[in-house]
Amino acid sequence: MPPRMPIESGVPDPFQYMHPLMARNFGAWNYHERPRPGVLCHTAKSGDKIWTVRAGTQRQMDLYTIRKLCDIADEYAEGYVRFTIRSNIEFMVSNEAKVQPLIDKLTAEGFPVGGTGPSVSMIAHTQGWLHCDIPGTDASGVVKALMDELYEEFIKEDMPNRVHITTSCCQINCGGQGDIAINIQHTKPPKINHDLVANVCERPSVVARCPVAAIRPALVNGKPSLEVDEKKCICCGACYPPCPPMQINDPEHSKLAIWVGGNHSNARSKPTFQKLVAAGIPNNPPRWTEAAAIVKKILRVYKEDARDWERLSDWVARIGWPRFFELTELPFTKFHIDNWRGARRSLNASTHIRF
Ligand code: SF4
Ligand code: SF4
């Protein structure tokens, strides 16, 4: 049989980058322990052991920081690193004596060691101003500001269970499902630049994008354009990506909303959908103090009131939403009640891909 030829897309073969001890024991691990926050120790069936030290980063990293981390890997670890999906860096060492000097070096350089077990792990974020063309807020900035506030919760393991926090910089696309999610919330319909619509937008596809059928074609000043029925519009922002002249981002009216209790399904449990708990929070860079204060308050109450190993959604399910609002002292308003009847039955919940 001819050898399988390399392809030009897709991930590279990971074994070439793997610590040799890990490659040797691939698929043959016996158990693992957490000797301290931020450190995992895996024991293979062969008796080999490997220690993994996890450190937080600022997520969007410059070249100098990456070089510094690589130098630490060469000098204090064994030259092998990997990044987790939440942009933590992990160093692997085959000798326990190397663990503490590595932790000391990382801490001295400002990289917190933690994020394992029942801690607040690094916040996952979408791309924000750096890469995407439709964000209403930065995302990595919110993460950096918030993780600075939650530093102690990252380096310690004293939450009832793991806490996953996410941020999402628009209302409709990637991200935004976690134990606590900080998501953009538009509060006014898009403002249409009619001079540009005919040049830039494919109008039928913009009309089709609206989940509540609020957009219709229109002639404005003799030019083909679009109009929005503002009574129907739910300010979702779905029309803005295919038609940038339908500007929805606004320094004053694009706010943040906080949702809690989201959890992906796993082998044992079904997914849980997050619920809105705070809305209309100022989108206030560079420290996002108002959003940070609410997240910290929710975490403090969860830590005090939840039982061991209860995830945030389990805790809320046990105590009930009225008690959640009482304990967190977040105001419960009419906007928390989902009584809206204007949607097509399923909004955009269909799994079909639409173009
Ligand atoms: S959440 Fe929205 S704005 Fe942010 S990166 Fe994803 S698509 Fe872009
Ligand atoms: S913001 Fe959303 S609901 Fe409003 S017009 Fe655009 S797509 Fe429709």
Automatic annotation (TrEMBL):
Protein name per the record: Sulfite reductase, dissimilatory-type subunit beta
Keywords: 4Fe-4S, Iron, Iron-sulfur, Metal-binding, Oxidoreductase
Cellular component terms (Gene Ontology): sulfite reductase complex (NADPH)
Domain of life assignment: Bacteria
Organism of derivation: Thioploca ingrica
Domain (4Fe-4S ferredoxin-type) ranges: 224-253
Record GO biological process: sulfate assimilation
Database matches in Gene3D superfamilies: 3.30.70.20, 3.30.70.3340, Sulfite Reductase Hemoprotein, domain 1
GO molecular function, a single term: sulfite reductase (ferredoxin) activity
Known cofactor(s): [4Fe-4S] cluster; siroheme
